[in-house]
Recover the amino acids of this structure.
């Protein structure tokens, strides 16, 4: 086993100051004020602003602002100079405003605040929502929507951003909803940075370094298995993928242990392909080989979640993170189509497609995770294009062998605003994985490809262990950006995992 240098930059961004303000909008004295207006007569709905900002109703009329969802009006500079900017955000029908609507409005308002530093005040129609939830999701939306990745630019843009957020009109008790916001968002931002970074920066060793930094900063336990260690454990499926790369594989096991008694033991498993060429089944044409840096999105999600968990320190729950990281490359040593490899449990696998490599690495990772005797295992992977075809790029699909776990993940994803849809784990499709020579093939027929991928993974999970597989191939990246996600890496999965883990203690 080898020690790795620590990764840098895990805490690059300062936490945003978050608070509840009892001051009404006509007395608030910060720098940028964001007010949500429902659909209808804008002059009427904005009447309470007129005494503070004369001419607001006229401006709304001139700009044909009707309060429709997605509408936004920015007024600046204001005559009295305080605040410097007034942002009006459309909310749609008043009786249809929900938590997702608040999240979108908060994100839109935050994006309109770019260029101003100091404090951002946000007033939305909170009354119909749980105040703690409303505070949390609004604050998360503000911070996440202000993110921009300029690490690789020679002359980064000077982005003036608000450093403090005040939620106007919520009860003081809603401050409890703000306690987890900065920690959760920091985990999302770490995942975004890992996914977005090019493959010459984020290598298997770099992921190991990131885990080492988390272990150092948050008092976690870390084990790194090197190639020889993995070979000694019989991890032939994982190592077969790595053998075409000049970069050594890293098998990463990071553990968060709570203070006091452990009520639940959980395992988070992330696919860690830092670059996927497809191997000898080379990605060509529209396969987006230039984007295959994001094939480690699952590992980024679980590392980001562990960063959040390390700061939040949930009681009563022990968390094991497992990542089998390598590259899938082509050289004279690379695995061939048709090769038969053996996983750590003795299962033989005929590789009929070298571009279905993620499930091979996950096979040994899941076996290892189950050795830790967890109560539940959740794996995340950019696994199949079939899932993207089925659900698009805003939803992840998931498969589970346990109803309670499935329900808990649904609840956690809803709370985090991450689209998640349960898919069928249809056992009859397993016949598509039958091999003439080995115990199974690594891919089945094209129809139902995401289902057969899940069924393949299920073979490496202990029968008595609750398990879910989340395919994040769609939402791991956003070309144009939407809502809380700027264009690029989204950090999908972190909020769901953090919410789920924290609810288990």
């Amino acid at each position: 086993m080898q020690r790795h240098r620590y990764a840098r930059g895990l805490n690059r961004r300062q936490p945003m100051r978050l608070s509840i303000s009892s001051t009404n909008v006509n007395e608030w004295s910060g720098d940028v004020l964001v007010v949500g207006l429902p659909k209808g007569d804008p002059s009427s709905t904005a009447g309470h602003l007129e005494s503070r900002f004369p001419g607001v109703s006229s401006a709304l009329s001139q700009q044909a602002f009707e309060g429709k969802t997605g509408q936004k009006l920015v007024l600046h500079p204001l005559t009295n100079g305080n605040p410097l900017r007034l942002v009006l955000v459309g909310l749609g029908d008043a009786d249809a405003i929900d938590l997702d609507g608040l999240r979108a409005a908060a994100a839109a308002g935050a994006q309109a605040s770019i260029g101003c530093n100091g404090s951002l005040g946000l007033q939305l129609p909170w009354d119909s929502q749980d105040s703690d939830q409303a505070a949390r999701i609004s604050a998360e939306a503000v911070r996440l929507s202000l993110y921009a990745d300029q690490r690789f630019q020679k002359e980064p843009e000077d982005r003036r951003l608000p450093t403090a957020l005040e939620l106007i009109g919520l009860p003081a008790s809603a401050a409890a909803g703000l306690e987890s916001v900065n920690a959760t968002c920091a985990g999302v931002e770490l995942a975004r940075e890992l996914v977005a970074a090019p493959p010459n920066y984020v290598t298997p060793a770099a992921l190991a370094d990131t885990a080492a930094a988390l272990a150092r900063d948050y008092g976690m336990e870390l084990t790194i298995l090197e190639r020889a260690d993995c070979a000694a454990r019989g991890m032939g499926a994982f190592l077969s993928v790595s053998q075409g790369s000049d970069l050594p594989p890293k098998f990463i096991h990071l553990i968060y242990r709570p203070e006091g008694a452990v009520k639940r033991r959980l395992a988070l498993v992330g696919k860690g392909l830092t670059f996927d060429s497809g191997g000898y089944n080379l990605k060509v044409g529209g396969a987006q080989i230039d984007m295959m840096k994001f094939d480690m999105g699952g590992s980024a999600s679980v590392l980001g979640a562990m960063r959040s968990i390390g700061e939040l320190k949930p009681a009563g729950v022990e968390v094991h993170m497992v990542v089998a990281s390598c590259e899938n490359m082509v050289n004279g040593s690379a695995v061939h189509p048709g090769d038969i490899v053996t996983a750590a449990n003795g299962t033989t696998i005929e590789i009929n497609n070298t571009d279905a490599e993620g499930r091979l690495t996950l096979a040994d990772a899941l076996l290892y995770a189950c050795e830790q005797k967890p109560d539940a295992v959740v794996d995340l992977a950019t696994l199949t294009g079939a899932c993207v075809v089925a659900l698009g790029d805003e939803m992840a699909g998931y498969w589970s062998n346990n109803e309670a776990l499935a329900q808990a993940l649904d609840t956690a994803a809803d709370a985090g605003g991450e689209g998640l849809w349960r898919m069928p784990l249809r056992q009859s499709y397993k016949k598509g994985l039958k091999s003439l020579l080995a115990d199974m093939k690594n891919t089945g027929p094209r129809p139902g490809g995401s289902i057969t991928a899940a069924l393949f993974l299920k073979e490496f999970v202990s029968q008595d262990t609750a398990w879910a597989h989340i395919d994040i191939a769609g939402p791991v990246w956003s070309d144009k950006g939407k809502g809380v996600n700027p264009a690029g890496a989204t950090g999908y999965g972190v909020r769901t995992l953090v919410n789920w883990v924290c609810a288990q203690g």
